[in-house]
Amino acid sequence: MAEGAPYWMLWEETVGPGAHWSGLLRRGSTLRLTDVNGGGNAAVLLFNYEDRSERYNMPDTLKAQHTAFLGRTVALYSDMGRVLCSITDDTCGWHDTICGISNAALVEKKFGPARFQERRNEYYRNAYDSLLNELGKYGLGKRDLSANVNFFSKVTVNDAGDLEFHAGHSPPGAFVDLRFEMNCLVVMSSNQHPLDPATDYAPKEIQLTAWHSRPAPRNDPCRTRCPENERGFRNTEVWFR
Amino acid sequence: MIESALDPAQARFRHVIPAGEPWIGSVRQGQYFRILDLEGNQAVDTLFYRAGTLEERYSATDTIRAQGNIYLTTGTALLSNEGNTMLTIVADTCGRHDTLGGACSAESNTVRYALEKRSMHSCRDNFLLALAKWGEQYGRDFSKRDLSSNINFFMNVPVTPAGKLTFADGISGAGRYVEMRADMDVTVLISNCPQLNNPCNAYNPTPVEVLVWG
């Protein structure tokens, strides 16, 4: 962290291109993800740190807020009707959560083989293996790898339901702020989105910046986005009483 | 709309799942599995697991990504989290099926409708109870971890190009069905959805029938 950083700063770290990361973010802290060079993707899973059977739930998040994507004021729900974190700021406008992650077969098919033996740490990673790597550090595994968020990636559907990936959606310096309403285990891979049409294996670094904030106040825009979120935040506060 | 040539009278297994109840069963590789919407517009929340395992199961995101489309219908390969085809939809007289809407629960009902809806019956209660009572026959140690994003057969959850998602009136009707060929041995876990707060069951949950051939 920079010399002379404000006292409320917690830490700063960079997740390298294609790397994987995990950490604890406590209620009342905010994590900024920055797509430093643009065109990045951060595949993220979230768990209640105290009870990891409670985790980010894509369908509950989408149907509570009548949206098929994440952006500013959206709350990320667990399967227990509570808000794990909410998006307090966002310069990107659209984050995918319906397309999942890359795996070894997909990466090899798109980019060809690149093993550690020949390429050392330039070898091609994939998000499935990367997330399993991090999950294993907490006694979690394949059964815990459910639908994720792909921060910085935009995928829309047409009236027939066909997917369209929007290349160049995230400009250099794009960021999204996650305010944590619960103590969360955050698991992340910076591998490319599985629908990214790029012909080169070229994942981007993601910068992480964490600071002390505070839980959502009464008039918070995430809380007042819809009556569903008022109830979701209420459920969350009961957990901490 | 693709119809099946299979005759219900020749099915090796037939079972009517009453409204609001769970069902767990097995379908073997090569068999055909049909879900019949007996009275119309009944959401059938469904999960698949590779028989005898917990680690490999239906994956909504892999299925969506691989086919490049969010709706399930004839021709859709239902993929696992390991990228294997578990079943393939071979006939469908409804038109399309949802896999983004998930399953209702006591907790999500408090968020979506009202805090006092907590005690209403829900799909995830069905799933949890079925796993607790009968899960051991199908795999060791099933738990809430194994309730990943499911399929909602006969349910209509349109997404607009602007990204709006809604639970809309159903497009199914009495006698419509969806039929799958199993490409591996699978365990099937169903909740015949008891939701009364949105149009997924036309506010009137009804029985459905499951049939197996081969």
Look at the structure and give the mean pLDDT of chain B: 96
Helical stretch tally of chain B: 3
End-to-end gap of chain A? 33 Å
- Total domain modules of chain A: 1
The level of helicity of chain B is 10-25%
Order of helices and strands of chain B: EEEEHEEHHEEEE
Count of DSSP H/I helices of chain A: 5
Average per-residue pLDDT of chain A, rounded, comes to 97
Q: Give the end-to-end Cα distance of chain B, rounded to a whole number of Å.
A: 23 Å
- The H-and-E topology of chain A, N to C, reads as EEEEHEEHHHEEEEEEH
Word description of this protein:
- The complex is a heterodimer of chains A (about 240) and B (about 210).
- Chain A has about 240 residues and is an alpha+beta fold.
- Chain A has one domain.
- Chain A is about 20% helix and about 30% strand.
- In chain A, the strands form 3 sheets. In chain A, strands 1-12-3-10-6-5 form a 6-stranded antiparallel β-sheet. Chain A has a 4-stranded antiparallel β-sheet with strand order 2-11-4-7. In chain A, strands 8-9 form a two-stranded antiparallel ribbon.
- In chain A, a hairpin with a 5-residue loop joins strand 5 (about 75) and strand 6 (about 85-90).
- By secondary structure, chain B is of the alpha+beta class.
- Chain B is globular, with a radius of gyration of 16 Å.
- In chain B, strand 5 (about 75-80) and strand 6 (about 85-90) form a beta hairpin.
- In chain B, strands 1-10-3-8-6-5 form a 6-stranded antiparallel β-sheet. A 4-stranded antiparallel β-sheet of chain B has the order 2-9-4-7, covered by helices on one side.
- Chain B is about 15% helix and about 25% strand.
- Chain B starts with 12 loop residues before the first strand and ends with a strand.
- Chain B contains 3 helices and 10 strands, in the order E-E-E-E-H-E-E-H-H-E-E-E-E.
- At the A-B interface, helix 1 and helix 5 of A face helix 1 and helix 2 of B.
